[in-house]
Design brief:
Elements lengths: L8 H20 L6 E7 L3 H17 L2 E7 L5 H12 L6 E4 L9 H7 L11 H9 L8 H12 L8 E5 L6 H9 L8 E5 L6 H6 L3 E4 L17 E4 L3 E4 L7 E4 L4 H4 L5 E2 L6 H20 L5
Parallel strand pairs: 1-2, 1-3, 4-5, 4-6, 6-7, 7-10
Antiparallel strand pairs: 8-9
Helix pairs in contact: 1-10, 6-7, 6-10
The protein binds NADP nicotinamide-adenine-dinucleotide phosphate (NAP).
The site of NADP nicotinamide-adenine-dinucleotide phosphate has 24 residues, from helix 10.
Length: 298
Amino acid sequence: MSWNNLIDGRAIAERIHAETAQRIAALETRGLKPGLAFVRVGEDPASKVYVGMKERLCARLGIASVMHVLPETTTQAELLALIEKLNADPQLHGILVQAPLPRHIRAATVFSTVRPEKDVDGFHPINVGKLMLGDASGFAPCTPAGVHELLIRSQVAIQGAEVVVLGRSNIVGKPMIALLLQKAPHANATVTLCHSQTRDLATHCRRADILIAALGVAEFVKADMVKPGGVVIDVGVNRVNDPDAKGGYRLVGDVDFARVQPVAGRITPNPGGVGPMTLALLMRNTVRAAEMAAGQRA
Ligand code: NAP
């Protein structure tokens, strides 16, 4: 049986790209071009893929990007010195330091060294604080902001909804609830954040009008954990061994898609749901940073 309840992240991301491209064209008429610096430390294969995708998208939309690849042995001081150089470069409006970083480097120190106005990933404590305060002048992290945009553009009712988020990371789960609980349009949700110490997690899930899975456990969310007719958003990207697949593995989400889709009212495919939105929000944040630098937007 085929179902027509998909939330098409690719299509929505394309619409955001079209809006972003218009803003880039408007900047160009003033002789300005948004610039984004990528910093990758080490040779993590997934990071290489992610940064490569982001670079190609910059090229497609007309954002100038520069790539800095540093060896795994780079010291924290060396990395911070590079970030300070990028902070001072007026051609660069955004700086993205790709996680994960090697263990000897403290990610929190790195993220707080990026100037908040160039922190298009939204990880600087000032941007984290603004998000919590409901101050839209900061940058929200791209993945939860992408999920929020996906809900809004799919006309999902957020106001008053019971939202359950699985996973409390600083890059997905925590900012996700901060976005949805604000006393603001497209928010006003009642939020529950579950994690590995949550009791009766499935019971929480079953009352969710909107269930957002971001825990990094392959196909964790089963059909009997989903409220019939509820909206299910799958953030997870997990490798599972598959001898028949190219490379010996395939990627699956945190939701058992085949079994959950018939129960859910709406659901994101994976791939093709949250992933493209993360990229779209990164591009949009970068253009906004360029506009802010040009004194055009708050
Ligand atoms: P993370 O930092 O590893 O955090 C995982 C969270 O899930 C933690 O809060 C952990 O609880 C919780 N958790 C893990 N296993 C659990 C279980 N069995 N029951 C309940 N809670 C559990 O992960 P992340 O960086 O937020 O990423 C989450 C997933 O999203 C990953 O698959 C990642 O690849 C994916 N992701 C996708 C995108 C995208 O653009 N599509 C972007 C970012 C991340 P504790 O805090 O108690 O340990």
